[in-house]
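Hallway conversation turned thread

IA: we were arguing at lunch whether anyone had actually written out ABC transporter substrate-binding protein end to end. Turns out nobody had. So, for the record, here is the sequence (348 residues) and right after it the structure tokens. Reply here if something looks off.
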Amino acid sequence: MLNRRRFTVAAATLGAASSIALPLWVRAQQARIEKPKLSIAVGGKAAFYYLPLTISEQLGYFKAEGLDVEISDFAGGARALQAVVGGSADVCSGAYEHTINLQAKNQVFQSFVLQGRAPQIAIGVSTKNMPGYAGVADLRGKKIGVSAPGSSTNMVANLVLSRAGLKASDVSFIGVGVAAGALTALRSGQIDAISNTDPVMTMLEQKGDVKIISDTRTLKGTQEVFGGPMPAACLYAPAEFVQKNPNTCQALANAIVHGLKWLQTAGPGDIIKTVPETYLLGDRALYLASFDKVREAIATDGIVPAEGPRTALAAIASFDPTVKADRIELGKTYTNEFARRAKERFKA
């Protein structure tokens, strides 16, 4: 009786609020959502890495699924993750590899919809501070800017360093965010190199501020760096949250896949009209050039590729001794169940 009463009240409220009633199936779905009001933590929302999240928010796709979503933006993925671990946010929009790192610490988190099929992270050395750069070994003792220590930008830098025989302790990592602060840190000489996402990296590259030494902004570049497909941005949450709130997770996956579907055919002008003006960092042309560079790295249907988790695990285990590959159960780090349903619904 309680559920019937709630449904009746909700339907009446919706009917009063709009002269055009929502379809019955939408109202029924909204009535079933376990947590209609929730918070998502993200590390650097202005980056193209999280463009699907921004698109789904700006175009009202979360609301269309009956969700009232509050998005909290942090300096980097590691900070966003801390918010979820600490309980101040329900879901994290962050890098898939965090689910592996967390499991190594006996915390089970699960990705349930993919936003990016390549990390979109490039590493560049300052042409001002390191004009004579000859190889990765030259970074020993240098300051490297990352979105935030422990973030995916930090992870990619660690991987590149390890392949050149360097340890993370051989350099100093400095959090610079993924927006104007990152540009300032590099151009003012506060850091010697930077591992970051677009549009920051394309802006630095086109102005001649950096020399790119590693690039995962394309599928080809990702294959060269990681040796396989590398799942990137996703929505992930504690496994317990996913189990207790399946309809909520389905609604979130629906909204993201809807956004991915829109992005498949969106033109540069559509992007400019949709994202907040501040995301352009004062240069529309360079912002669009950045989008062209990373477009293929955006997921198309929200599904984690079969080989992706293994690629991520191999990469992390290669430089992080706390992650033992034989002890990680990859099947617990992600599920494609929600994304498959969303893909079918939106024909993504």
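OS: looked through it. The beta strands are 37-43, 68-74, 91-95, 109-114, 121-126, 143-146, 172-175, 193-197, 210-215, 233-238.
IA: good, adding that to the notes. The chain has two domains: 2-118+230-346, 121-226.
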